[in-house]
Amino acid sequence: MSNEPDDGSDPGLVTKAYRTVTPGYRSREDTEMHAVGLAYFLVLAVLLVPLLPFVLIIWAVTRLIEYVASLPGGDTE
């Protein structure tokens, strides 16, 4: 920190660091990426929804096997 009085002539460190030769960025709506994301979701849904019954069957069989294995006398060791 310096002991010089602040007379407004020094632009400050932030202003010095912010100076650039490129124009400023103006944000805008990203509708193209919304469309890409929606298309990606729809493709995944079309591919994965038909597999859902098989996933449910495998899940149910696994649960049934775990239940049968947990019954008394199910362990043969």
UniProtKB/TrEMBL annotation:
| Keyword annotations of the record | Membrane, Transmembrane, Transmembrane helix
Q: Kindly indicate whether the keyword Transmembrane helix belongs to this entry.
A: yes
Q: Which residues cross the membrane?
A: 38-61
- Pfam families named among the record's database cross-references: DUF7535
This protein is called Uncharacterized protein
Report the source organism: Halobium palmae
